[in-house]
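Model it.
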Amino acid sequence: MRAINILADSMRLTADVVVAVAQARSTVGVIAIPEAPMSLSRRAVLAAGAVTPALYGLKTSAAPVWSLPAAGAVSVTEHVWIPMKDKARLSARLFLPEGADKTPVPAVLEYIPYRKRDGYRAHDSAWGQQLASHGIAYVRVDVRGSGDSEGVLVDEYDRPELEDGVEIIAWIARQPWCTGAVGMRGISWGGINTLQVAAMRPPALKAIMALGCSDNRYANDAHYVGGALGHTNLQWGVGFKAVMAGPPDPANVGPDWEAMWRKRLEATPSIMATWLEHQTFDDYWRRGSVALDWEAIQVPTYVVGGWQDTYSNPIGRLLTNLKVPRKGLIGPWGHTYPWLAEPMGLDWTFEEVRWWAHWLKDEPTGIMAEPMLRAFMPYATWAESRPLEIPGRWVAEASWPAPSIRPRPFHLTKGGLADQAGPPAMSHYVGDKVVGLTKPEWIDRPPIEQSSDDARSLTFDSPPLADDLEILGYPMAKIRVGADKPVAKLAVRVTEVTADGRSWLVSYGLKNLTHRDSDQTPTALEPGKLYDVNFPLFLVGHRFRKGSRIRVAISENLWPLAWPSPEVTTLTLALDHSRVELPVRPKETTPEAFPIPIKHAEPPRTPPAPPVVITAPVSPGHYRIELDSPPTPFTWPDIGTTTQRGHWETCELTEGAPNSGRWRQEGLSAWSRGDWDCSVTAVIELTSTATDFHLSESLVARKAGAVVFERRKDSTIPRLLV
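Modeled.
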């Protein structure tokens, strides 16, 4: 099976694409990800190219006409030191409109740890060109201890990172080429720290745009899923070790590069152990979780995501709870920028420049006269449509939550889903089955057809729908459930069963039942006792087709998305007190005009092979998933640096033996140019007993092939009702 997980800072770009970026011409280049072209691995965007600006004037009737201004010349500075108050220096790459030294302009900051020199270079070159050519300076900064910035990086969104962000914004505002108005934007890590820095209220920060972001570091990031340990925790952990331990480039930092690298290697923590030692929503995760204080963000906010991206989930909460001018957009793509999405994306230059022009230049662009939320309403799932465009339309809501969207209950009964609760009835489910192979990951791998997992779950089907049914929002699971063990999980999937009998995933949710009342203070289940458990499924927009059936599928876990419970558990459901509520949206009578130009990719002449997903055991009762992504050298033509990224993954589990599980991740990152030749290899492996997790982490660094640093740590970490 080919790998689809890409290390967080990887860029695999063909030479012609990078040449196009370096020349800032009009070609867009997108590198497809094997088996998952609509979803990128966590905090990685494979991007290149510069979009040709065009003059659009598409507006709703309520908005004034605004056109994207003509593009001008851009001046690029490869490396600038930004001094911090503790004397550390952060490395920036600047894209300035020609003449900004005489006529200052507003600026937008993107601030991430993904190596502006050779990791995110293609994206930065493309987007810096777009913003700067339209009169907005673009400042790209490596987080302290990453890329070419001094210091060390030892965790996500650490206090020094956020404090540095405040200082960077103040530095930008003081520059003679800046008007003093600063915006901040980014995707994934960059979207998350955009929200967090905004919550610190830098005076010069006037507006933000957060894409693929999170409002809750524990409950909606790549660590824990509904209070259960997520597999993405390990995948991201091995990629993040390479981010923390990568060397700076001597072309920018000079002869001290090796001392800087050594300092980083010594400081690189056993990060998976850190995350695993915090199994509840404690102060560690609360730091930086903006959902705990919505009013901390006091600048206009635009949040953007894609339905195939789990990080779209917070958009509804952000729009509901923020108190500032705000907008949201959700498209039919994965963890990527709208302008890179295929086969259907958006001319995002138009929309983003319009946002910054409104808030940083005080231009009447009309963007805030438009609906608060725009979302693509899919008429089919991604898995059904691939590789062609998902059929559907763009819909709009003037406010969120939308008053016209109402919950419709679908009650679980012995006869299937019903509009009314049935008579008292109990159903039992023994959680000794491997369920989840059709939805194996929180973010990286998209779902496939669900029938094999449905067959191993409790399923409840509606009658065939008499008409199309559209939903937009958070489905709610309201289940009365008990277990025969003190630790158990509950997984709920909603699928559309089409007339041909195939089942397609619409939304899902997973809940560690010991977290039924609180993620901060979980409590063990009392065997035999029934509990009323309410939790939202993932935010979704979808149209169920006339003649299809709605299915609710119940299981004890989803693997390998989450680690198994300590013991095989039997769930008991009181069906007469169990239902799933779907957020039904009435179809609008007059569709809202969609003002953003849409980009359509040409259909592939030869459709790619469907994803290969292992759903059968490799031996009786034993399941193994192996993904290999060997390193492929790529040389950046404008700087002469060759980079390589590789990733290897193994997940295995035997049915009926929850502590037979093993997760293993290995990642390689390498950089070379002339006599500068460095690499880091990280390995993380996890197993368990009923009471403990057993974790092994290692990091090896090489210079010119010789080992210059090596560290391994083995940890035994008690399980805390996980």
